[in-house]
Every structure is written in structure tokens, then in C-alpha cells.
Design goal:
Layout lengths: L1 H15 L7 H17 L1 H14 L7 H13 L3 E4 L8 E4 L40
Helix pairs in contact: 1-2, 3-4
């Protein structure tokens, strides 16, 4: 599913950059198709975000987070290079060859004493279910 999304994204990017000349109707159809594919991935994206946040691993210790994300990418056909720059949890995922080349980057470690609650500089849960009752 992720691979289909990326292919659609590449097609849309080539159209947007003027590399391919297509009719306005075809362009609208491509955009609608891409929007539909993105919408259908909303649940998967939320599960992935929730999973990454649940690991809450400090910098250079993102073992479970790296394993989780690279596992998903490998299932989608990406080649994973692990231990990039001598950092055991750093990795690069590649898929395909040629051009265009698209790079995505992310910071996947947690920040101690931080919160997901907007405007708060101390640990604060968004949920009223936390902390759990004894």
C-alpha cells in the first residue's frame, strides 16, 4: 500500500514539476486518486504514529522504534541500510532506482521532560485516563 502511494506521489510530482504534459482532466483525476489513497491510509498512519510515540525511546536508544519502522518499510519492498554514520539505530531506506530521488527524514527519539500537550514544557498527558487509578 505504501509503495502504491509513493508511485502515485512520484507521478503527481512529475506532473507538478512540468516533466510530463497531460490534460487538466487527467491531472485532476491523478490528484483525486492520490487524495483517495492518502485518505485510505489514515488509520494505518495513526496506528504508526501511536506506535512510535508509545516506544518513547531516548536519542541513540531508539531500538524498538527503528525495528518497527524498518520492518514496515521492508515489507513494502524498501532496502534498509542500518548503522548509518556508526549509529546503531540510524538507518536509510531506499526503493527503486533512477530519478527523481525523494528523501524523507524524521527524528524518532523522545525528548525527556516533554509533553504532547500544546504549550506545556513538562510531562503532561492528553488523556484523562492517565495516570491509571491504583
Amino acid at each position: 500500500m505504501l509503495r502504491q502511494y509513493l508511485l502515485s506521489l512520484l507521478l503527481a510530482a512529475s506532473v507538478a514539476s512540468g516533466q510530463t504534459s497531460i490534460s487538466p482532466e487527467r491531472e485532476a483525476a491523478i490528484k483525486a486518486d492520490l487524495a483517495g489513497r492518502i485518505d485510505r491510509m489514515a488509520k494505518q498512519a495513526q496506528v504508526m504514529v501511536d506506535s512510535v510515540f508509545s516506544f518513547a525511546e531516548l536519542g541513540f536508544q531508539e531500538v524498538e522504534t527503528s525495528k518497527y519502522l524498518t520492518g514496515i518499510l521492508e515489507k513494502e519492498g524498501f532496502r534498509i541500510e542500518r548503522g548509518v554514520a556508526g549509529i546503531p539505530t540510524a538507518w536509510v531506506a531506499t526503493w527503486g532506482s533512477g530519478k527523481p530521488v525523494i528523501a524523507l527524514g524524521s527524528d524518532i527519539d523522545c525528548i525527556p521532560q516533554a509533553s504532547q500537550k500544546p504549550g506545556v514544557a513538562y510531562p503532561a498527558c492528553l488523556s484523562t485516563l492517565w495516570p491509571p487509578s491504583p
